[in-house]
Each structure stands twice: as structure tokens, then as C-alpha cells.
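Okay, can you check this protein?
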Amino acid sequence: PFSSFWHPPGSSESRDSPSSSHYASLEINITHPIRTTQLAIAHFLSVRRSAATAATTSDPPSNEPLFHIIHVSSIAGQVTPLIAPLYNASKHAVSGFVRTLAPLDAAYGIRVTAVAPGVIDTPMWRENPDKLRLFSDEGGDQWVSADDVAEVMGSLVDGREEVDVVAASASAGGGATGLPSGDSREGWRKVKAEGGLILEVSKGRVRKVEQFMDAGPMGAGNTVSNAKVAYQDIFSMLGSGTWGT
């Protein structure tokens, strides 16, 4: 871990400097997305102003979404495991950040949305022994395809007015199999594509993450059954008498 709460700055495992107040994990997962969003919004507003000037019109901005910004949150932005406090905090922040910018959709046609994937089958998992040991085929864990996440991201930026998500009854336990591009349509419903929308992507499911009273991640592709191993390591470090010193 190059930037981890459980390996404080100055420890041999950490690349974070003890002389600064910065954590690389937070810089990558929330600070940089915030700055990128500022740059994108500034550019989009400039394009809109230029277009208005060229058309010599003073009409108010259209509600038609012309510009898109999509962020990558995570199911980690909905849950609070002990394993990765910095990562979880950053993903909670991403989801909150996206929701706060929702009004830009109607006001300026700038639609800010996010996907919240489960456990994605990528080298970040496969090539990291510390993470991979948490995943258990025997425990019923399943991977989420990166292609499926990309497909959902595409649906958020292609200009459609509605996107397909699992119906509430299917989210609770059954009905829907496969992503919208290949399922039988049973167990799916449509929700409005709009600023602030966050879509959870798990194994064969796309679910709208509600701002209030959300049920939380569910279904295959959202679990790591061996998480207790990491908990044991953390408690062992904390009990060593030298952690953080």
C-alpha cells in the first residue's frame, strides 16, 4: 500500500511524507477529480459563451444536456469497512461531490454523474496479493467485468434521457440477470438520466444509488468474503505497541 491509513506517513510501507498533510490516496481519488471538474466546467462554459456570441443571441442557456462529466465512485462510497478508511472516505466524498453539482444540468446543460462499481476484475486486484487474498471463489465472491462498467458509463454520456436499472424488487433478490444490453428486460425499470445520478454496477445488475434511505450494495460482485483476514492484520498491528510511532 503506497498510501494507507493503516500504514502512516513515515512507515516503511507508506509513500506519504510525514512532513506534509497530504495523502496520495486522497489526492488521486478526490482532489484530482475535483480539480478536473473545475477545469471541465470552465471549458464548457467558455464553449457555451462562444457559441452564444457567434449566434448573437441572449437567450438563456438551454436545458438540453450538451456536456458530460462522469466520475468513478464505488460501492465503497456506500459502506464503511475498517480495511481502507482513506479509500472509503474518498469514495463517499466523490458521491457527495457529484450530487452537489446536480443543478448544473438544468442550469447550464452540464451533467455530472458517476458509476459506483463493485469488485472489478482488473490488474489492480489481480496483481495485488494483499487485495486478491480477500477475494474467495469458495466464499461465493464474483468479479464485475470492466466492460460492463464501461457500458454503463457510456449510457450516462450518450445523451439518452433515461437509463436502465434494476427494479426495486429485483434489487432485493431476484429477477434481473445480465446488463441492459443483453437481458430479457424482466426486472428492469427506467430512471431519468440527470445530473447527480449515481449508478451502482455489480455482477449483472445496474442499480440507482438513492441519496436517502438507500438499501446499500447488494447482489453478486459486491463482496470479499475473506475481509476478516485484513481485520486480523489491522488488529495485530494496533496491538503491537509500535503502530503510528
Remarks:
- The radius of gyration is 20 Å.
- Confidence is low (pLDDT under 50) at residues 170-185.
- The CA atoms of residues 74 and 165 lie 16 Å apart.
